[in-house]
Amino acid sequence: MSRNEVAAIIVASGRGVRAGDHPLGPKQFRTVGGQTVLARTVELFAHHASVSRVVLVTNPDDRGRLAESLPTMADFPTLTLVDGGATRQASVRNGLLALKQNGPQTVLIHDAVRPFATPSLIDRVAQAVTPDAGALPVIAVSDTLKRGDGGFVAATIDRSGLYAAQTPQGFPYLPILAAHERARRDTQTAFTDDASIAEWAGLAVRLVDGEPDNIKLTSARDIELADARLRERSAMTHKIDVRTGNGYDVHQLVAGEQVTLCGVEIPHDQTLSGHSDADVGLHALTDALLATCGAGDIGDHFPPSDPQWRGAPSRIFLERARDIVTKAGGRIMNADISLICEAPKIAPYRDAMRQAIADCLRLSMERVSVKATTNETIGFVGRREGIAAIATASVAYGETD
């Protein structure tokens, strides 16, 4: 046994049923702030100066997900993979057995779905472990506690001396291994954490200060809130420059059979006159995007004197503007278009327009807005001589997730 060695066991074999089904699998493989929960937790321990070995206990069915979550396993030379068991308790025992050869003096046992523990918490727990006592990070219970009976309050529980337990939980290695072996042999009790097994086995457990942010991600809502918090923190930490661009376009209406607006062909008794398909909505949005990085306007990139753009679909122009913005380091956040016309009616085609723009800009549909208004029969629009469009685009430049 290495006298002062600290090893860590990360338990990541759970199915996370309370978080619901998800294409990425169990909650440890879902992303918060652009990184998987598991990767955040593994990096915390694998890169900690005081932790010499890390055992990652996973479900054998998750090996494919594990490779995607930790694509550069070479970055973690101290990491050992171990198959989990049918229960958390069995999984921890498998992790402890993996350390048996040259066992450490201290072992820290941590839930993979607590990705917000800090290096200082790891130090605090490890330093509190002694040969005859473990260490448990806790938060004092602040809420008033009630005991229920039949759907009614039966009693108020005195919260003094009550604590919420966290991980990592630290123990002297040989005593906690012995406690797990004894529990497996002598009782059918399903222990909810390793401190409970230590208590049952007679091993003292010292309380140390936990951290309010060291939450366990249990539900889908927990994951959503954690993701939002990290993204907000990233936006505050990194230099992000959010810019807004405006665009305006107008085309004349002439006799015809259809108009193309925001990428959608609409049957009509007139058509828009122009060198391309004269889609005023996409032309205005193209100018709005180019404005966010000072890249001129649509005429600079697609001059009407160039015959190659005759009759061209305006989607080409919008895609070029998108690529120019992306190359300049921008991420398109929102697109809004107002169409000004007396006819045709826009409402029946609005969602198709939004979807066409969203597909072109690689946005979710909720980030695209298309609105329409008349000109109250005033002016050239009111006389049905033309259709105008005003567009606004928001683009974030700088370091974004």
Attribute tags:
401 residues; alpha/beta; Spore Coat Polysaccharide Biosynthesis Protein SpsA, Chain A; 60s Ribosomal Protein L30, Chain: A; 2 domains; five-stranded mixed beta sheet; 12 helices; 19 strands; 31% helix; 2-C-methyl-D-erythritol 2,4-cyclodiphosphate synthase activity; IspD/F; EC 4.6.1.12; metal-binding; lyase
What can you see in these coordinates?
- There is one protein chain.
- The chain is elongated, with a radius of gyration of 30 Å.
- The chain starts with a strand and ends with a strand.
- The chain has 12 helices and 19 strands.
- α3 (88-98) crosses α5 (173-186).
- By secondary structure, it is an alpha/beta fold.
- It holds the Pfam family YgbB.
Short description:
It is built from 12 helices and 19 strands.
CATH 4th-level superfamily of the largest domain: Spore Coat Polysaccharide Biosynthesis Protein SpsA, Chain A
Please outline the major beta sheet: 5 strands, mixed
Count of domains: 2
CATH architecture of the largest domain: Alpha-Beta Complex
Number of strands: 19
Instruction: State the share of residues found in helices, binned by percent.
Output: 25-40%
What is the fold named in CATH at topology level of the largest domain? Spore Coat Polysaccharide Biosynthesis Protein SpsA, Chain A
Q: What's the CATH C level of the largest domain? A: Alpha Beta
Question: Which regions are unreliable across 5 or more consecutive residues at pLDDT < 50?
Answer: none
Structural class based on helices, strands and sheet pairing: alpha/beta
Number of helices: 12
Gyration radius, in Å: 30 Å
Q: Strand content of the residues, in percent?
A: 25-35%
